[in-house]
Amino acid sequence: CINPPCPTKPYPGLWEVPLNGWIGDNNQGCSMIDDCNVGLSPWSATEQQ
Q: Which domain of life is it from (predicted)?
């Protein structure tokens, strides 16, 4: 878990879903791509450099 607060105890009946770690253009970690700073264009997140 790179973005605290992180779960430390089990929650019976609740599933944990692993997420890929993303790094935005500002070098900040984020758990979902729509939360990352990835440039001015929505296409910049998928363009290869």
A: Eukaryota
